[in-house]
Amino acid sequence: MKQPAIILTIAGSDCSGGAGIQADLKTISALGAYAASVITAVTVQNTVGVQDVHPIPPATVAAQISAVMTDLQVDAVKIGMVNDADIVRAIAAGIRRYQPRYVVYDPVMVSTSGCRLMAEDTIGVIREELFPIATILTPNLHEVSLLVERSVRTVEEMAAAAEELSRRYNTGVLVKGGHLAGGEMCDILFADGQLTRFSDEKIETENLHGTGCTLSSAIATCLGAGEPLVEAVRHAKTYVTEAIRQGAGMRIGHGHGPVWHQWTLNQQRTSWQA
Question: Smaller CB count within 10 Å for the chain: N or C?
């Protein structure tokens, strides 16, 4: 058997299984890689919403990173929601110490409804500590608007914001357009001085819980498997689009249900790469 890529996800736990660490582990496994995890918080949540968040002590987060990195040959790291400045510093210190080749950061700063999830000082630490060491950032429209301090609502504004952040932090930036008006899904990637547009037909469904977590962990998995950044994003988006499509008719929970991560289990990986 070929040695699988090893992907480390650093994120919070979603006890209902649709987002966070649980979504990451499902995604990484579905794409044929080996998944390891560092838990930053235990959340009390389900498809209806988040009821409580209990952060893990920063020293314990740092110890988890060391335990994984000193034993496993990690090919890529995905970082999810972190809303504590000291935990941010612990993660950044671990990344700088162990130097994984790829770091995908999904900066979960604003809820789907537009509510800010982080204090300004934490956002400042993230800008200073995490953005410069990331291979790619994956903000949605709410988050990118916060980061560039202006409203981003069109494809043209997405492209300008992606380029601005990419040049400012010397990293790839994928601005996700899931909240765009109209029937087309459009994401914009700016990396290495090049802009790439990804377009898909919007799938009408309320089962979108965990799509951001799923996409970022899929990108990390594809990068860890050796794919170039643009192709890694393209293949990750194909995986997520089909996970949304196949999960659209499911009834899991009473709120916004999850996507169907396991759709690849009975298929060869080349079938979704084609």
Answer: N
For strands 102-105 and 76-79, give the pairing.
parallel
SS3 17: coil
6-273 CATH: 3.40.1190.20
**159, 193 contact by CB (below 8 A):** no
d(CA 85, CA 94): 14
Kindly report, residue by residue over 127-164, the tens digit of the pLDDT: 999 999 999 999 999 999 999 999 999 999 999 999 99
Sheet of strand 76-79: strand arrangement = 50-55, 34-45, 6-14, 76-79, 102-105, 136-137, 172-175, 184-191, 194-201
The arithmetic mean of pLDDT across residues 26-43, rounded, is 96
- Coil/strand/helix, residue 118: coil
| CA angle in degrees (0–180, nearest 5) for 45-46-52 | 15
CB 107 within 8 A of CB 126: yes
- Give the domain ranges of the chain: 6-273
> Is there a contact between 112 and 41 (Cβ–Cβ < 8 Å)?
no
Alpha-carbon Rg of the chain, whole angstroms? 17
Strands 50-55 and 34-45, by their bridges, are antiparallel
